[in-house]
Amino acid sequence: MKVKSIQTYILRAPLGDERFYSSQCSFPERNSLIVKIETEDGIIGWGEGGQYGPPEPVAAVVKHVLTPKLMNKTLQSPIKVFEQNYADTRDFGQKGTYIEALSAVDIALWDIYGQMLNKPVHSLIGGSFRESIFAYATGCYYRGEDVLNYKASLPKLAKEARSYVDAGFQMLKMKVGLLSIEEDIERVKTIREAIGPNTSLLVDCNHAYNAFTAVKMAKELEKFNVMWLEEPVVPEDRMGYREVRSSTNIPIAGGECEFTRFGFRDLFLGGCVDIAQPDICVSGGFSEWMKIQALASSFGVTVIPHVWGSGIALSAALHVLASIPPSPHTANTVPLQNEPIVEYDRNPNPLRDELLKTPITLQKGKVLVPQHPGLGIEVNLDAISKYGSEF
């Protein structure tokens, strides 16, 4: 079976008045890079990358570097393709744009591989331990009025947080880091009171702090039974991660800005995280995921993939989550304690909600794992035409 064509699409969905903010930037749009690979036998595989920054550089790598290596070539196993492409580009592409491009291609090849074998991807990367995944709501970002007059926005924040509980979520992740510690703690207090003591609260800093400030923030957060503190310091600051982790009883999460097994090896050896968060569309696709997961299990680190993209990215995350063994194994499964969970962003995301002909949706606080061959999805070409164009 040979590769007939490789197409890349840049997608952008403007959010208008619904834009939101993290500690680092505003989000005026949803954007991503979608890769379509078709074989001579008519099998089509879909992949995704380029969802963090501008997608054009990632698309350029796929088009000008990786496509010539694959066109009209007989398909090998996705792992073999990844290893060869990584070896060919490692001198200048160990992190960032090149790995995102490799990730997008890898996901598409696994989609094809699964369809060739008539198996869903999760059955090929370790087998399925579950058919549905507990979801946590990512929300409670900053809106415009939070910066100008955050006190006035607290009632709206409480209403938003409560809406997630009413929708069936048992877990909620909120943002901190844009305001002062004192102001953000008031936001945390507001949300904790709104959701009650039985809903798990996760806090994401988006690396807003230095180690000293992060420790101070963690001490304040301990009062609110926070179940993890995400990206407390910048991803390069391994010593800062260790300092924060050793100074609090809150588990430390991180890794959405890390790449390949080599980057995660350094996180684990450094004792930096309790919870690793590789993004399948960023860190190396399914081929690297299996290696990262194996490393994490040997260090006793929980793996909860980061999800930020279209329905393709969410589908990829569900396949890897299905393949994670309960850790530790017990007779009962408890979300996060020994059972993986999936991130479900509650901000507007047309690329997730419209790109698939059958959208991936919530059912009683869980998301079903696709069971059809490959990724188990069918892409809506009208949505690609609506939000993007071929690169």
TrEMBL record:
Mandelate racemase/muconate lactonizing enzyme C-terminal domain location: 154-251
Keywords noted in UniProt: Magnesium, Metal-binding
Cofactor: Mg(2+)
InterPro entries with a match to the protein in the record: Enolase-like_C_sf, Enolase-like_N, Enolase_C-like, Mandel_Rmase/mucon_lact_enz_CS, Mandelate_racemase_C, Mandelate_racemase_N_dom, RHMD-like
UniProt entry tagged with the keyword Metal-binding: yes
Superkingdom in the source lineage: Bacteria
Keyword Metal-binding: yes
Gene Ontology molecular function: any one: hydro-lyase activity
One GO-annotated biological process of the protein: amino acid catabolic process
Parts forming coiled coils: none
Protein name per UniProt: D-galactarolactone cycloisomerase
Native source organism of the sequence: Paenibacillus abyssi
